User: Fold these one by one.
Assistant:
Number 1:
Amino acid sequence: MLKNKEIVVGITGGIAAYKTAELVRAFTRKGANVHVVMTKNAMEFVTPLTFQTLSGNPVIHNSFELFTGSKIGHIALADVADQVVIVPATANIIGKIANGIADDFLTTMIMAITVPVLFVPSMNTKMWESTIVQRNIEKLKDNGYQFMEPGSGDLACGTSGKGRLPTIEEIVERMEDIFTEKDLMNERILVTAGPTMEFVDPVRCITNRSSGKMGYAIAKIAKRRGAEVTLITGKTYIESPHGDIQVIEVTTAVEMRDAVIDHYRRSTIIIKAAAVADFKCKAENCQKIKKQCNVDSMTLELEKNPDILEELGRIKENRILVGFAAETDNVLEHAVDKLKRKNLDLIVANNVAQEGIGFGSDNNEVSIIDKTGGVRHVPRLSKDEIAHVILDAVKKAMKKRKKKEEDWY
Ligand code: CTP
């Protein structure tokens, strides 16, 4: 979403200004063209040279400076910007813009801007809570400016409380969110992700190599596209998706099944990306199983876990149900069999034996198969991009169904 976008980063004079260097780097890594504008006070904390090096563009720090030598020549920055983010946004810049003061490049540019402007405040807790700052924020929000809430924790001024700059990932996610079309606004999507874990005894377990990345990407992108998202996840080592997503953590397949059954009724779309253990230990060993020195092997007796997707296939009614098939051979054949057997609308199949995709990887290469046997091969892309394609396929399936219903009447 940030690829080829013109992003203006306005840096003002707060200690969190040093963190903006990482933010500029994150934007450029995503393919954005970043223009940095610094206030005079910002330069007391960080230098333009850092930002010029990281963005590859001249940094504007004098009032009413022209863009000599930059790619966009003399065109005003306000006209080329796709989005502006002011980070850190101090009480001073919030107050100035809220009250129409335009006495340097940043404030003057903001007056002329028509694209979204995101303020990312960071300041001392008492300043943040002051009536004046809050009133100015309300005024700006009423005029269409967007704000991120500061985080809580230790502050550079030696106190602790609300006022910390949100993380770089949170700021990037919010920017991506602003750019994304909200085409899933009325949908409630239930996503499962990650591996389940079955206990052998209190110390040992049986699990699988699923990282949870594909399911987390679907939850994140669905949220970005406006859906209300519930994510039911097995234990993973990746960060929970940012934004307003209901996250329910489970461990075993039975726990996942219970959580899914508790939540599926509210949903319009269910996407089961989790790698559920097919079997669990038959005996419950409450004590650690000891190694017996006189035996060379041991047998674990396993019993079947519930097949959550199959159960959903029986009770789904008119919800769109999407399953996954992680295979190592005869990928399409196995996937089609699962699609039919579990009464799915779509199945996403991938070959996990293929190098560079699947378990743990940031990329994937999948085939999406629909009920009518239609197959769409999706080449190797990031899991975020694959998530978009899967959600597009879900939308298409919903459209097809709607048309069929209309034709029926
Ligand atoms: N699934 C599930 N509950 C299970 C097993 C699988 O809900 N107990 C779901 C997975 O979330 C996935 C789909 O079923 O969406 C396919 O999972 P997979 O393990 O590939 O298929 P299985 O039916 O278990 O068949 P097999 O292990 O033989 O390939």
Number 2:
Amino acid sequence: MSDPSRAPGVLHVVATPIGNLGDLSPRAQAVLRSVDAICAEDTRHTRQLLGHFGIERPLIALHEHNEDGLAARLVERLQAGESLALVSDAGTPLVSDPGFRLVRAAREAGLRVSPVPGPSALIAALSVAGLPSDRFVFEGFLPAKAGARRERLRTLASEPRTVLFYESSHRIEEMLADAVQTFGGARPAVVARELTKLFETVLDGPLEALAARVAGEADQRKGEFVVLIEGAGDDVDARLAEGRRVYALLSREIKPSLAAKLAADITGAPRKSLYGQGTPDT
Ligand code: SAM
């Protein structure tokens, strides 16, 4: 029953370890201990984590298949004064994990959503990769199908910022082979595996050497991965190549002068270097 005298509760978004239990912060423990219920991606997994810290709270399963339907009911519970925590199996919720719909619904209802920051594999990998980290792009998981995956990689080939991907053991070998084809074998990259766990490994080198190492050594294909690829930088040649690629695509559909203007706006390549280039068959 909702008590109108009770202030609305808070939704705490709590990061949990990506491998090392010691990474559950004291504040995360205190918040998890204090809430009325904990929304968890996999309740069995979270029960184990909580058990390790002697925390016993009711758990609510919230995953990609039920989040849409459940968000409204959870918002009602928050409005009625209950406080809730949201956790995922590992790392920070919403980062390639469920929670976006619940957080959006809570914010739209004017409720307080408060972070308890902590581990995330992408930031952990970036912090040790030794690649430019002032600007970076997180692409999450690439599409599982080879064609869609290659197409996504192609759109990133001239990206000037460091690009980060999540990858699984099933696809790491294929993903690196595709990356060599798209970014070129010489592009500096890092494969960060099993961070904070027993077999933590951070390999760096040109993409081609990394792909060969992972293909040739079964152990390097085990576990969880973050792949980081250095950006093309503000390389004039890369910008020009991308400008020509975009111009070629656009000029199939619209008149060349407009195609050149748009391609220049999109890629930063000089318009004059594109217009009148003909239509390269990319
Ligand atoms: N929300 C999580 C976070 O903040 O990092 C990510 C969840 S996503 C479903 C799981 C993916 O994150 C894995 O497939 C892997 O790509 C990456 N990952 C998680 N833990 C990792 C670890 N210890 N080392 C390397 N990558 C990891």
